[in-house]
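worker-3 :: picked Carbohydrate porin
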Amino acid sequence: FELTYQAQIMPWLVVQPDFQYVHDPSGGMGDPSCPTRGIGNEAVFGLHTNVNF
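worker-3 :: tokens ->
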């Protein structure tokens, strides 16, 4: 699942926050450091900026 939005803050500046939620990122595989334990779901936050001169 991904949610993103692009906003032009100034004529020369664009900001794009991003949120991603990954359900079962390992595809059912175990954690390599502890095979009996599964890898949980993950949330990722990001921010992309674009500056034009």
